[in-house]
User: What shape does this take?
Amino acid sequence: MAGIRRVLLLSTSDRYVALILNFLTVAVVSRILTPSEIGISVVGMAIVGFASSAREFASTSFLIQHRELAREDIQSAFTVMLGFTLVIVGGLAVFARPLASAFGQAGLVPYLRIISLCMLIDVFPTLIVALLRREMAFGKVAIINMGGAIVTSVTTIILARQGFSYMSFAGAGLANACLTALLAIAIYSRLSIFRPTLRHWRRMVAFGGYNGLTAFMFKAYEMVPYLLLGNILAPHAAALFSRATMICQIPDRLVLSGTIPAILPIFSASVREGQDLKKPYLNALEIVTALQWPALLAIALLADPVVGLVLGGQWQDTVPLVRIIAIASLFSFSAEIGYPVMVSLGAIRDVCIRALIAYPASLAILLVATAVGGLHAAAWSMLIITPLQAYLSLTFLRRRLGLRWRELFAAVGRSALVAVASATCPALVLVLSDLSSAPSILQVAVSGIFAAAGWLLALRATRHPLLQEVGHAYAAIRRMVRLAPTQPAE
Assistant: This one.
């Protein structure tokens, strides 16, 4: 367990640095650019994200979960990845102008072409990072990711302040791709892995066929709302939905952003050693829900001041969207953990089948809601879509792990009590005191303190296993403080 904690600490360090930098960047840029300007970048990234999903037919997850990895497997993976990426980049370059015309935004042409160049450069660090994760070298991965996060944040803000508008994001993406490629190659330095070969391409494509189809369906579901809202309504609507979703993803990023890249290698190693994943999965679910659910309820309660604090006054139209999407997101507790568990078990075909059922159904619901009711109806549809996806995901997991529904409910039961208790305290503060006229940062700070107090008390009252992990974290911080060098007295 100590070894796993060390891996997770290394894995989460770069992700939390990136998360902090990302939200600082969002807070600054959202006050420089208008929702319409940011909306153009949202539409552009939706187009690129949809196109780039084809690259998942050559997924690096193959390299992480493959039992015995030869050099020719790596070279074949690189060759297949490069081939798919060249096709995507060429397609975006050719169709950039027609796509821009379809959305009535001529500025999308240079945006799409620069981002497609980023995708091509990104092939090199992506391969290296996958190999480092397989080797559990998360310290090296952290250096690469943190370097990229810093240059992205700084470049975005500088370009935005210099008047580059939505192209600030494209310029920052190019700077990120170049720096991470240089860092990755400098750290890994075994350039022979980039020698093209197709000797073992069938292994890669056999895995990537299911994985690629799954990723394509997911990207279609994820990006279509932005494309629909940007085309039917305006880029402004796409920006509002994007920013509302981003705020509701804060708990996932805080809780899972750093751990998910480590979970697949850890679970894959456990499977290679013949261990059962049922108990680790239930333990992970219990820990995740005790962190994620209280945070989502807090966001739903404090949507107004949170939006004001993170985005600024010109984004208040996102407040009702945030409340709806935050409540819907309570049902997404198993989404991030389920994928690495299934891949570790070699059940990528089940993942694909689940995607073929869930994502077309979700898209149909979303399409109807958006076409009929617009922006707010798209948000309300998440209250149907997210529970549906959770049910399907858990159904496939139960079969693979031999789980019963009562075991799943037992795993998250205490977390539900913790979430209710942690949300009750700030709710009472909001009802009994008049903080509506106070600055956003004060509202969030006061409510956050009461929420944290209720959370800790509930962990103790329910004897939640997360309390032990909090104790370990507290002890580690105390050791670090004790070992920190002190200045000698004058």
The two ends are 44 Å apart (CA to CA).
